[in-house]
Amino acid sequence: MHTLPATRIELAAWLRLSLAPGLRPAALRLLLAAFGLPEALFAQSPDALAEVAGEPAARAVLAPPGPAFDGQLEVVLAWREQPGNQIVTLDDPAYPPALLTMPDPPPLLYIKGRLDLLHTRAVALVGSRSATPQGIEDARRFARALSAAGVTVVSGLALGIDGAAHRGGLEGVGGTVAVIGTGADLVYPAAHHALAGQIGTQGAILSEWPLGTPARAANFPQRNRLIAGLVSGVVIVEAAMRSGSLITARLANEMGRDVFALPGSIYAPLSRGCHRMIKQGARLVETPDEVLEELGFVRRTANHAGRAAKQAAPLDQARLRVSSGGTALRAASAAFADTRPIGPAPQPALAPDSQRLLAALGHSPTTLEILAARTEMEDAALHAALLRLELAGEVTLLPGGRFMRAHHD
Q1: Going by fewer Cβ within 10 Å, which terminus of the chain is more open, N or C?
Q2: 285-301: pLDDT as tens digits
């Protein structure tokens, strides 16, 4: 999508309004609806502006720009000249239409990457920064499937679920959009520098914050409102009871967007936020197709299904190997039990590799292959650690060769 960029004078007016202290986007939208473009606002009397949006908004609009404004304008113009960078104003035809349904759309958007992704069908995937391995896998799998169906995956570039959602979105035709809580010239967290570079090239990065704005806790709820505004639905993958993801879900619900949540183990702390949202009316989903169907999006084609089946076949064969391995593990466990002294034995602290394996196991039944991929442990070390955990009562071997963390009353 190509539009004519705002002229220097037009951009200066929009920038001045976006930087005006105390001018809320909702009040600015009222003023623009009443008087037209930003230059027209500056020509109005205080009383005329106050009658539409109140005295604080009138004072904010008419306050002269600060001494640093000219320098800020030059920085913005220079940033816009860099390849892939765009600044879209509220009156621009390229402004994301979904955001116009919000009561308080930002007057100025800083965009790096593909502007067309802000005009597509979109779903947000959000969740905990401290996600479990299972949550990471679920987020990436859902995002990959949604993107394969042509749906753009939106998230917030945070660690954990957000990062996994972006990576999955990049794997399909739908792509991904990162809505960030800093200036568009910064990357937060620093660990996602490479991921942000990939999104800025293949997807899109969106910010309403002035260039140079650092990460501040107060910015992220406002970032979450943009995530909710851009999409048709929000999927919560993992969330604690007090979570920014739940803020996103609440904002999405207030905007009339659909809210979905993945259920989890009743023992998993990061399932509690999802379960709470389900109790409050979020739709429980177990597959990406359920999300697509609920939103009325076209389901994946037969070709996609065929590829998925081919990808699943090696996994089914792996489960057969794990099943036989599970029998061997039970036999080894019985033989080891025969050599143990009678009576209770003290429980030693878990070895580091056992602790790592237990963390990788999470709270859901998991196959040997998945554990090997998560821990990157050699087969012999992995089997030995699983055996130690099983004998210590920390892991249970399930039918089909899957393993699950034991839950103690």
Answers
A1: C
A2: 999 999 999 998 865 44
pLDDT at site 408: 62
User: Has domain 8-73 been given CATH number 3.60.21?
Assistant: no
Model pLDDT for residues 328-341, shown as the tens digit of each residue? 333 333 333 333 33
Pick among 3.40.1350.10, 1.10.3210.10, 1.10.10.10, 2.40.30.10: CATH of 306-336+348-405: 1.10.10.10
Is 320's pLDDT higher than 70?
no
Residue 326 has pLDDT above 50, yes or no: no
